[in-house]
Amino acid sequence: MRLEITPHVIDGKNIKMTIVVRKDEADFTRQVSGNPPIFVKETKTDLVVADGETIVISGLTKQKKDNTINGVPWLKEVPVLGWLFKGEGKSESMEEVLIFITPNIIKPQEMAGIQTGP
Known about the structure:
Structural class: mainly beta
Shape: elongated
Order of helices and strands: EEEEEH
Number of strands: 5
Distance between the termini: 33 Å
Largest sheet: 3 strands, antiparallel
Strand content: over 45%
Strand order of the largest sheet: 1-2-3
Radius of gyration: 25 Å
Number of helices: 1
Helix content: under 10%
């Protein structure tokens, strides 16, 4: 995951921000010559926020469904009787990334107390 924020102080009380969130994910279920494809999810937003106000970025979601069939080899393939020798499993999951950002403007008098080197 990658988060890029470009802040600009507007009037000493508000901050204009350009925020880019990128999430790259490999899909190992569909490999080509041993290389999985990469799914890129990206969102970009421009907003103005007051000093100390919290914002939430959402929308990077992933839904996964799995269906599995397991059982005794060959016997699970027999018509009608096969149901006695196999089992099915189903699962669903949802994943969502939430990003909370609270920007603060550092005042010049606060910077005087910050050391900038040895």
